[in-house]
Amino acid sequence: MDIKQIQDLIRFVSKSGVNEVSIEQNDFKITIKTNQAPTYVTANLPSAEGAPVYMPPVATPTAPATPATAASEAPAADTSKLITVKSPMIGTFYRSSSPEKPMFVNVGDEIKPGSVICIIEAMKLFNEIESEVSGRVVKILVDNASPVEYDQPLFLVEPV
């Protein structure tokens, strides 16, 4: 099983409503868990070609990530015209490529399609997430180094 198949499996598990999936092949075993109600699926797949790959179990957050809020935030603003940028996968959200590097985007920054807006680490792979919209970042909804779920809102963007 290659990394692309594993990422596809993670997306499938996230969308399907299944709580846990375990796959075992010769020297290869993978378990994917979510925070949803328990449902178990067991699969027997044919052996993968090539050398076996060890993948550690996927870490599952114990509670959903909560948006960062300012203590003196104004009353709820009209967000109907804002675009919500959502996470394309389960993993850990990072605003920069390393602690010493600048953030990819900050509130007030203009973004355009194809510009890197964050990184999501999934199973030791750092995936650059590119914007699919043009606009100005109005709000960042996730704290740096926080776990995120598939389809979880990450940014609010005002279209330009």
Descriptive labels:
mainly beta, OB fold (Dihydrolipoamide Acetyltransferase, E2P), 2 domains, four-stranded antiparallel beta sheet
Could you characterize what this model shows?
The structure is a single chain. The chain is mainly β and 160 residues long. It has two domains: 1-59, no CATH class; 83-159, RNA polymerase II/Efflux pump adaptor protein, barrel-sandwich hybrid domain (OB fold (Dihydrolipoamide Acetyltransferase, E2P), Beta Barrel). 9% of the residues lie in helices and 34% in strands. The chain has one helix and eleven strands. The chain has one helix spanning 3-16, and strands at 20-25, 28-33, 40-43, 83-86, 91-94, 110-111, 116-122, 125-130, 135-140, 146-148, 153-159. The strands form three sheets. A four-stranded antiparallel beta sheet has the order 4-11-9-6, with no helix packed on it. Strand 7 (116-122) and strand 8 (125-130) form a beta hairpin. It is elongated and about 50 Å long.
Q: Write down the Rg.
A: 18 Å
Please, what is the average pLDDT?
77
Biggest sheet: strand arrangement: 4-11-9-6
Structural class: mainly beta
Q: Supply the CATH class of the largest domain.
A: Mainly Beta
- What is the global morphology? elongated
